Amino acid sequence: MGFYSVLEKWNNFDFENYFSHVTDKDVIESIEKDNLDEFDFLNLLAPIAKNHLEKMAIKANLVKQQYFGNVISLYIPIYVSNFCTNNCAYCGFSKKNHIIRKHQTIEQIEEEAKEIAKTGIDHILLLTGEAKEIDTMDYLKEAVKVLKKYFDSVSIEVMPLEEEEYRELKEIGLDGLTVYQETYNEEIYDQVHISGKKKDYHFRLNTPERGAKAGLRTVGMGPLFGLSEIKKEAFLAGLHLKYLTDKYLNTAFSISLPRINPAEGGFQPSFPLDDVTFVQFLTAFRLFQVKADINISTREVAEFRDHLMHIGVTKLSAGSKTDVGGYTKKDESTCQFEISDTRSAEETIQAIENYGYQPIYKDWQQIL
Amino acid sequence: MDKLILKGHEFENRLLTGTGKFADKNLIAPMLKASKSNIITMALRRVNFSNPKENILNYIPKEVTLLPNTSGARNAEEAIKIARIAREAGCGDFIKIEIINDMKYLMPDNEETVKATKVLAEEGFIVLPYIVPDLITAKKLEEAGAAAIMPLGSPIGSNKGLLTKPLIEMINDNKKLPVIVDAGIGAPSQAAEAMEMGIDAVLVNTAISTAEDPVKMGEAFAMAVKAGRMAYLAKLAKTSKFANASSPLTDFLFRGDK
Q1: B75–A contact, CB cutoff 8 A
Q2: Rounded distance, CA A82 to CA A98, Å?
Q3: How deeply is A129 buried, as exposed, middle or buried, from its count of CB atoms within 10 A (0-12, 13-18, 19+)?
Q4: Rounded average pLDDT over A3-26
Q5: Does residue A362 register a pLDDT over 90?
Q6: Residue A100 CA: distances (Å) to CA of A112, A319, A324, A368
Q7: Are A282 and A310 in contact, with CB atoms under 8 Å apart?
């Protein structure tokens, strides 16, 4: 049953009632602990914890320095296809949207790879929409193979696959998987995923675990903030992270906190996540799971991303383009969402150095 | 100071340092100068041979001995491959075996470490294996041909010092090879404590590289390591539960006037 059995245990928990009873003393005690349990994490997510935001940020920075040092790891996403068979209310790639769709050939991927490699960043994240008839396993394998020629570390963010399929991709050099649950609320999940394979809540929920079972080195996860009540989403995502971290010692897990950005289709989030709460959640994640990577994408604006470096973030994407063929610009397609941090990879790296951090271009040696 | 000898290679200094976690790689050379550390470890996974601008090797002075480590390896096979890549890339024969497949606590895998040590020692590497302190593993590593034993003082990044002291003492009391405490040392006083115990050297990375002034902290560690070694060689005065009165309390019983 996997993580779902953990979720079920919290089904009848009265979150709002708990949050309303958290005191300042509870929050301070939880901040000061070395090993936080689920209730400490809840205390840090409670609205009252905002009174102690600075203290949370200082501790988050200390913990980050202690376990990761003065470093920020870099990666670059490459969108190779934006075809999708799902109809999701919030996504620009949604099947119902009349957008310019592209599916790159392996040769085109190689051309893009050459362009991206010029940045010196050695970690790449391959992305597609969810259209298994077009982005077949053979296609993904060929794409991973060609990317391995230029990058030591290749991860994917594509449609959820079976464990065996992850294993096949690992054999040709895939390191990692990123998959977002979007929302842990099963009812809302069903509403916003109108049609398509993605409608299967359980298949999605168990994806990070399938990746870990297949032996992938890194698994990235997180909720998409905006679809459901945010404190509960953050808590359940943290619980999911803890469940996986405790169970699969061999895999390094990372968490992202994506917020809904303007996209084709004009979806408006029902539960917006403001900057202050974003920082509260980010520091809460850092204190709850000290060794997990925390990753911030270019969905966030440059200035905000820069500040987050000082409060627990360990991983940034740089110079991202979310349109297919965005790096060589030989073609035109529609982006998945609008990027907020539009700086080039070089500009992002420069900012990291200016703030006193060492940008990590490469963190894995290809040996397999 | 007396010399540290690793498989016939002599080193003046007993402080080993690391390249990881520096905010500015340009601080590595002055840190090495201030600390006089002449062995520095670096994760091969972070060396970008194809990008001359970002190659960490450019920041390490030529006279310093490189100790590439196999960080990122999850089993013996991967560690062996990384070691061979390091040697082929011209990083020398020293290799620190670091095999971790526990991402939660980052504990090294002693069993896989013994396997990798055996293979690499046979290939002529000078192998420095990083382990959870365990006497039996240390003995197996001696047999496997290691050049030193590197037990952890406390978990990586914890800066908690010598939490494993009784276990390290067992290894140190029964050693045939130099013992180097690696991981967990967060302050010069903790390094001095290890050296006073008779540990042969310490490897310190995080505590130096993430200090506000890594150059000054490198120097502070050098002084602590030297002080600790000198104290060990000078043989520390014995400690006692009882105060030794300068005029013995029972002396009156044995005086001639009794």
Answers
A1: no
A2: 12
A3: buried
A4: 95
A5: no
A6: 19, 22, 10, 37
A7: no
Q: Which residues of B touch A362 (CB under 8 A)?
A: 45-48, 51, 54
Question: Which of B51, B88, B217 to substitute to test the interface with A, most A CBs within 10 Å?
Answer: B51
What are the two backbone dihedrals, phi and then psi, of residue B5, each rounded to the nearest 5 degrees? -120, 120
B130: tokens are 């990083």
> What's the number of CA atoms in the CB half-sphere (13 Å) around residue A215?
12
Look at A145-159, A255-269, A295-309 and tell me which has the smallest mean pLDDT.
A255-269
Catalytic residue among B7, B96, B115, B118: B96
- Return averaged pLDDT per consecutive 10 residues of chain B, 258 residues in all: 91 91 84 92 84 78 91 92 91 94 89 97 96 95 96 87 94 94 93 95 91 93 96 84 71 70
The CA distance from B128 to B40, in Å, is 13
List Cα–Cα distances, A278 to A2, A19, A79, A180, in angstroms. Answer: 28, 17, 26, 17
Buried b (16+ CB within 10 A) or exposed e, A247-263: ebbbbbbbbbbbbbbeb
Label the pairing between strands B39-43 and A315-317: unpaired
* The two three-digit tokens of residue A32, written as one number: 């000061």
A162 touches chain B (CB under 8 A): no
B16 secondary structure, DSSP code: E
Query: Average pLDDT of A87-102?
Result: 84
Secondary structure percentages of chain A, helix, strand, coil, to 5: 45, 15, 40
Our answer to whether residue B81 is catalytic in this structure is: no
| Total residue length of chain B | 258
Which of A66, A68, A217 is the closest to B159 by Cβ? A66
Alpha-carbon span A84 to A94, nearest angstrom: 6
Q: Are B109 and B73 in contact (CB under 8 A)?
A: no
Q: How far is B220 from chain A (nearest CA, A)?
A: 19
**Cα(B21)–Cα(B210) distance, integer angstroms:** 6
Partner residue opposite A367 with nearest CB, options B81, B157, B209: B81
What pLDDT is recorded for position A141?
96
Contact A120 B54 (CB under 8 A): yes
Residue A249: what residue type? L
Burial degree of A239 (CB within 10 A; 0-12, 13-18, 19+): buried
Which residues in chain A touch residue B209, judged by CB atoms under 8 angstroms apart?
69-70
Q: How far is CA B103 from the centre of its chain?
A: 21
The model's pTM: 0.84
- Reduced to 3 states (helix: H, G, I; strand: E, B; else coil), residue A223 is strand
For chain B, how big is the Rg over CA atoms in Å? 21
Distance between CA atoms of residues B188 and B243, nearest Å: 29
Q: Which amino acid is at A175?
A: D
- Give dist(CA A363, CA A152) in Å, integer: 8
Nearest-CB residue to A67 (from B45, B46, B157): B157
Residue B159, helix vs strand vs coil: coil
How high does pLDDT run on average in chain A? Answer: 91
Which of B237, B226, B202, B209 has its CA nearest to residue B15? Answer: B202
